[in-house]
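REQUEST ID: PR-0412
SUBMITTED BY: lab tech R.K.
PRIORITY: routine
TASK: structure prediction, single protein chain
INPUT:
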Amino acid sequence: MLIIAHRGNHDDMVAPENTLEAFARAWECGADGVELDVHLTADGRIVVVHDPHTGRLGDVRRIVRRSTHRDLTGVIIRGPGGHGRRRTGRVPLLDEVLAAVPPGGRVFVEIKCGAQILKPLAHELRVCGLARRQVTVIGFTDRPMAAARRALPNHELLLLYGKMRLAIPSLQSVIKEARRIGADGVDMRAHRDVDASYIARVKEHGLGMHCWLTEKHERDERTVRRLAGGGVDSITTDRPRWVRGITG
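STATUS: complete
OUTPUT:
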């Protein structure tokens, strides 16, 4: 089972999410991979940032699709408060993050915008020097995932589930959507009903089964043990070192 650091390792208050510092910390803490979010700038560059603007963590609010990459890399991203520390970073380009991936490291790239990002994304993944198996592309069903399958035929593609949902989707709907898009698997919120039986049934249909922890579950050992014992392929977490301590 892979342990994937959600937006890098920022749970220990060392670095802001989705920054080079956060990803470096994730590798130092022994994460198998990192998860990150990508948007396309006005001048066609791919930047790593979660929101469509920098207002939540940045010192200046800039809308990503209306800004150049230079505008965005100049924004100071503030880290989480607490323990008397407040670190800062900047919005990195995707190619900077990929260049720093260690041998064998995995990257889960979440598409946060429309299909216009797919051509430059395919180019960057082709020239970055990472093996195809090292990069997994993920996205919710309202993103251009079918187009991503066509643009990135040789990369693993996972459908995200859990956004604004109180229950897990039925197995039938998961299989239908995965087949429609050509996904290789699903990446699902750690709902209480995701148990060994559900995981096994997804895998019986030839799909990978991955899970991500919500803030509620980030301190719930029982949830982590249930997912790991049930055979999930990866867990994405804000606390990779903590999950490693539980699962070994």
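NOTES: The longest strand covers residues 33-40.
REVIEWED BY: pending
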